[in-house]
Amino acid sequence: MPVRRRAILIGAAFAAIAAVALAQPQRPRYTSPIAEASVTIAGRKINVEYYAPSAHGRKIMGALVPYGQVWCTGANWATKITTDADLQVGALKLPKGSYSIWTIPNEKEWTLIINSETGQFHLNYDSSRDFGRTKMSVKTLPSMVETFQVALSAAGGNKGTLALIWENTEASVPLAVLP
């Protein structure tokens, strides 16, 4: 086959493939922007870096975020907590440093997982690197929260709270800066 005819056929084939691809219904692409929360408790800084997905009309808890399974607690890359002080996080005594945060959501109670690995893609959870696990309290919020939020707050003295908020759910755990 002459080169010119082959080029015309190849060009026509690519045009046909492109036309079929463009005719397919496009699923929306949601982006989850990077976000940050920080607090100073007893003169020591605690910082959380995460990606903040939005609901976009989807059912979140028990659906997009399934109950009883490890969730990366955000999107894209593992959520990272960095502390310049030793902390009491729920039942865990966490040495200063950086860790990733994972959770196991359930309707009535969540489990917070502190993992010693950071920087991993959201599907690359390695339980062998877990520092430890602790329970989180859960409450139902009176109104819908569209975009996932991590909230850090000081509660006086050396105490504070880490809260994970999305849809109509808030899961929280107490923090304390250790001497």
Topology:
Elements: H1 3-23, E1 34-41, E2 44-51, E3 79-83, E4 87-89, E5 92-94, E6 97-104, E7 109-115, E8 130-154, E9 159-177
Antiparallel strand pairs: 1-2, 2-3, 3-6, 4-5, 4-9, 6-7, 7-8, 8-9
Anisotropy-based shape: globular
Number of helical segments with 4 or more residues: 1
**Low-confidence region ranges:** none
Q: How many DSSP-defined strands?
A: 9
For the largest sheet, list the strands in their spatial order: 1-2-3-6-7-8-9-4-5
Structural domain count: 1
Mean pLDDT: 90
Percent range for helical residues?
A: 10-25%
Q: What share of residues are in beta strands? A: over 45%
> What are the secondary-structure elements, in order, as H or E?
HEEEEEEEEE
What's the main sheet like? 9 strands, antiparallel
What is the C-alpha radius of gyration, as a whole number of Å? 22 Å
- How far from one another are the termini? 81 Å
> How would you classify the helix and strand content by structural class?
mainly beta
Concise structural overview:
This protein is mostly beta strands. Helices cover 12% and strands 48% of the residues.
Protein architecture, described:
By secondary structure, the protein is mainly beta. The chain has one domain. The protein has 1 helix and 9 strands. It has a 9-stranded antiparallel β-sheet with strand order 1-2-3-6-7-8-9-4-5, with no helix packed on it. Strand 4 and strand 5 (92-94) form a beta hairpin. The longest helix has 21 residues, at 3-23. The radius of gyration is 22 Å and the shape is globular.
